[in-house]
Amino acid sequence: MGLILFHVSRPCTSSPAVMLYLVRTSILASATRNLIVMIGGPNYKLPLGRIDSLVSQATSVEGKLARVNDTKIPKSRLQRPRNVCISWSGHNIGFVHCKEFANRIFAKPDPTMNPKLVAIDSEGSFLDVITPGTFDNMLFKNLMNGLGVLGSVQLLLSDPRTRPFVEKYAKDNLAFSADFARAMEKLNVYKVKVDNQGEVRRRCDAPNTSRK
Ligand code: HEM
Q1: In this predicted structure, what is the pLDDT of residue 2?
Q2: Residue 94: pLDDT above 70?
Q3: Which of 93, 96, 150, 182 has most ligand 1 atoms within 8 Å of its beta carbon, as the pocket-test mutant?
Q4: Which of 109, 114, 78, 96 is closest to 150 using CA atoms?
Q5: Per-residue model confidence as pLDDT tens digits over 166-210
Q6: What is the maximum alpha-carbon separation in the chain?
Q7: Hey, where are the domains in the chain?
Q8: What is the residue-wise DSSP string for 105-167?
Q9: Ligand 1 atom with minimal separation from the 66 CA
Q10: What is the CATH number of domain 2-211?
């Protein structure tokens, strides 16, 4: 869901086909934000009209994204520990398949995991095992009790630089909501491309030049 938000809105043009597309993509961005609000999360400003990049390569992503089985938080990301906590906090709703946390429950169970959670034996789990359908700070409370399902999220408690934020958000849902909303607003206007730096893609999954 968070990743959809990076790509969803495009500027208006006079082509009816593109306008139809615009409507659809803007609806996706708005629907994501509205869903968050409907299930108890914060409202935030959502400027529409981003254009896409001219280049899109899987190789440029490798090594830059966190992984669910990371065993430590990369040093580069720890310059902004609050951002690390907020980006993983999107996992306070939704579902995760077993393969993403199997390494924590089989063979040698992860000692930071609550034994009740280790006992999960199913095809998957809710990411927030207590209030999976509510957008709230329960994920942080869960971490304090060893109830983080993804190893990389549970790491937020073990690392001394992110731990203060986990403790703060676990105690204060309003502070969490405010920081989440602010982060989403900043993300929505991060590195916006203008003029010939980008384009309105005919298909969202590839630059127009690769489909001529
Ligand atoms: C490096 C960044 C991220 C990684 C590696 C990651 C990884 C994952 C994984 C492995 C799942 C489970 C998928 C499955 O088993 O089907 C998942 C689900 C989910 N993620 Fe992320 N995620 C990232 C960033 C985000 C962000 C920034 C948000 C929101 C702000 C987010 C929101 C969600 C939600 C809502 C689900 C549940 C989807 C569902 O129920 O179908 N994720 N993520």
Answers
A1: 42
A2: yes
A3: 96
A4: 96
A5: 999 999 999 999 999 999 999 888 888 888 998 888 877 788 886
A6: 60
A7: 2-211
A8: HSSS--TTS-HHHHT--SSEEESSSS-TTS-STHHHHHHHTT--SSHHHHHHHHSTTTHHHHH
A9: 1
A10: 1.10.420.10
Structure token pair of residue 190:
């991060």
Cα-Cα-Cα-Cα dihedral of 44, 45, 47, 51, to 10°? Answer: -20
Span 106-121, average pLDDT: 88
Residue ranges lining ligand 1, Cβ < 6 Å: 1-2, 65-68, 87, 90-91, 93-97, 100, 127
- More confident call, 14 vs 93: 93
Answer positive or negative: Cα dihedral of 179, 50, 93, 128.
negative
Decide if pLDDT at 5 tops 50.
no
